[in-house]
Amino acid sequence: MPSKWVCIILNLIVCVIASEEDEATRAYIKITEFDYEDTCLSTAEAQWEFINSPSNEKLSAWEEKLISYAAFKNTEKNIIANISRADINDESLQYKYDVAEKIGDALLDIEDFKTLVHFSGITELMRLSTIHKGILNGYTKQDVERILSRDSNIRNRSTVWTTWHQQLAPLVNNFSTILTFADKAAKENGAKDVSEYWELLSGYSDGYDKIRYKWNRIIDLHKKILKFAITIMTKKYNINMNDTIPAYLLGSLQGTDWIPISIDITPYPDLIYSIKKNLWKRKLLGKSLYKTASAMSAQILSQVPQAEFWEKSHFNQQCPSKLINFCKNAVLRVSTCFEPTISNYLSAHKNVGKIVFNQLSVEDTPILNTANRYSGLEESVSELFGILAASPAWLNYTHIIDDSSDNDQNLITSLMITALNTLPQIVYYISVDMWRINAVKKNITNSEDLISSWWEYREEYEGLDSNGMNLPTFLNDDYITSNKPYLPKIIGTMLAFQLYEYLMESTEVRYDSIVRKHMNIDFLKMIQQGSADDWMKVIDKYLEIDEISPDSLLSFFLPLEDFIDELDDDFQFKAITAKESELDKLEKEIIMEMNVPLTTTSTTTATPKHVNTKPKVPDAKSSNKQNDKRSDTNTVANSSKNLESKSSIYTPEKKPENHNPLQSVTTEVPFDKSLLDIQDTDKKPKISSNKAVWAVGAVLIATIIICIIAIFGRQRCRKVPKNRRYV
Ligand SMILES: *[C@@H]1O[C@H](CO)[C@@H](O)[C@H](O)[C@H]1NC(C)=O
Ligand SMILES: *[C@@H]1O[C@H](CO)[C@@H](O)[C@H](O)[C@H]1NC(C)=O
Ligand SMILES: *[C@@H]1O[C@H](CO)[C@@H](O)[C@H](O)[C@H]1NC(C)=O
Ligand SMILES: *[C@@H]1O[C@H](CO)[C@@H](O)[C@H](O)[C@H]1NC(C)=O
Ligand SMILES: *[C@@H]1O[C@H](CO)[C@@H](O)[C@H](O)[C@H]1NC(C)=O
Ligand SMILES: *[C@@H]1O[C@H](CO)[C@@H](O)[C@H](O)[C@H]1NC(C)=O
Ligand SMILES: *[C@@H]1O[C@H](CO)[C@@H](O)[C@H](O)[C@H]1NC(C)=O
């Protein structure tokens, strides 16, 4: 017997020597990730509470969570710092190490961080609350945007636009301080200036220099769309515009998504009208709209949002929708309005893109990236879903365009929708970041100067003007008030067209089906790994895309460019106001109809599976809106469960949670296995508290078990292949 023990000890020593330093670090970072998930989860819960019933109390609770989250990140950073980066061999692990070390704004001085969080919280609360000012008493942001997209009286548009932005204007003095924090955070993260810092957070080095160059290539295309819009708007409203459009005319407060006015800016208003009408007729309200989008993700990525998403999301809140990541097990929820507008249709698809992106990557634990970085890759998958949603193939599949309509007209309409959605946004993102970088660099702290430079940038990049009202409309943007970079969205949008070209093997618009032959395994692997790793490297590895380029975007829009070039200058603008009121009537009817079944219990019993799928929506919103005349849209709040209507398109039923199409091709490695190889506890940093006990205990037990198996079974300790997780 003693000889056996000698053998065990000998084998133990062999195991220790054979183990790699990386495995200890890997296990250690894994534990850090679990702690991150817990802290992130409770922060997300506070945020979810806040956005669904915004109030000062909920805001304070959320702020506290954000502050303790930042404190937590700092603690973890200090612990991780005791591991030497030079000892890590694996590149992915080095990447995770860096993300845990350069934690972004959380590195700010605690007082500065609190000021930043408070400012972004207060502005968010104001944006989410009903406004109490003059003619807009009792209106929400969504109501205001509805007027901006519908009211044909441009004086009304101008008034509500101005009134809304004036409400936020007093906070502009605080904003100049907030902007200086971007510079401070850059220094803390070891970046030389704001651009380098934001490039770091986006995982795209030299990003802004490259963007300046790429922007030059998009200018012409954007100018063409802009000129087309100016021509039409000039005719429709009979006002003089030479080179720029007043921002209030663009259908929303920010003027960055021109979809709300797509019925104006199109050569085929009838087609846009029928799309709008069909979205209502097909009753793609709230949950049904997301079911449509999930049918798309089932086709492209064999993945649909998991059950919890459907149960816990709120489908009749405010728009623009908010997607919250709960950080654990890829749980995400959306809080959105129910109206099936084209904008919502697109954003539902984009949100589902993000949801499945996160679900696919759950095994690689992307939490450090989720917490400390802004992923260009996630944005690109999301935008890809938006592009596909507007393709004639998908619009036909979902019966949103009439089968009878002309293919060429469908093509132009589809391209126009994508153009109006992506181009104004991309130039807005560029203009916002360039403006902020310039303001920080030139130390512009005076509010007047900030505002006037803001409009100069918007004019230069976007071709918008303030119509003489120099208002700080940037306060209406949460990326700006929370110092978040737009760079990931800029590159994400361009990359989306490259992904489109990769998947479809061309940049041609799809008429027949959005699915090519069989599912693309490389694409899935790219998503799975790219979320937790340096995504630029991963897209290079799997898709051989080694640079973000606007080429795919430009060739995608080529048919539209040609079409606009060929339009003669006296293109006739067709006013279709009569149809707009028809649409209003239809909307009211559908809302009435959707409310009817609620009073009769028969439908509820007929479809019992719908009864408990949604928690009763708090009626906070309608209570303080007694005095407005939009009660027709509020009534639907009573019948939230009806928002999931039956539609005849194929909607995949709930699949097993976390169904992973990759499981067949990758070897799944459960977490505990990564602990099996840690032996060298002495070399490990002295780690505090129960974490240490946990790790050491697991290591010891695992080692002993391995060795026993090895000795009595195969007579030796076998090392698990090093890169088994990164097949
Ligand atoms: C990290 O190492 C430093 C000194 O090298 C030590 O003071 C500190 O306590 C260590 N931190 C932790 C969390 O182990
Ligand atoms: C704005 O600044 C003032 C004075 O510095 C401060 O009292 C106030 O709390 C700040 N408001 C916000 C929303 O940050
Ligand atoms: C402009 O707004 C006022 C008040 O909201 C409303 O009474 C009027 O009908 C609107 N004008 C038009 C042309 O819609
Ligand atoms: C635009 O038109 C106005 C008059 O409507 C004129 O004063 C102004 O100079 C023009 N701007 C440009 C850039 O042409
Ligand atoms: C920026 O300007 C403010 C006053 O406008 C000044 O107090 C501050 O020192 C300046 N900062 C830098 C870095 O020049
Ligand atoms: C549109 O879909 C229908 C079936 O839903 C199909 O018969 C038709 O061919 C499709 N149209 C095009 C242009 O693919
Ligand atoms: C909605 O519910 C409220 C109270 O629960 C009720 O007063 C109102 O009449 C309902 N509206 C409709 C259209 O059912």
Automatic annotation (TrEMBL):
User: Residue ranges of region Disordered?
Assistant: 599-666
Q: Which domain of life is it from?
A: Eukaryota
Q: List the disulfide bonds.
A: C319-C337
Record-annotated membrane-spanning stretches: 692-712
InterPro entries recorded: Peptidase_M2
Q: Quick one: a GO cellular component term?
A: plasma membrane
Q: Does the keyword Transmembrane helix apply?
A: yes
Q: Which residues bind Zn(2+) 2?
A: E379
Which GO MF term does the entry hold, naming one?
Answer: metallopeptidase activity
Q: Which family, according to the similarity comment?
A: Belongs to the peptidase M2 family.
Protein name per UniProt: Angiotensin-converting enzyme
Record the organism: Frieseomelitta varia
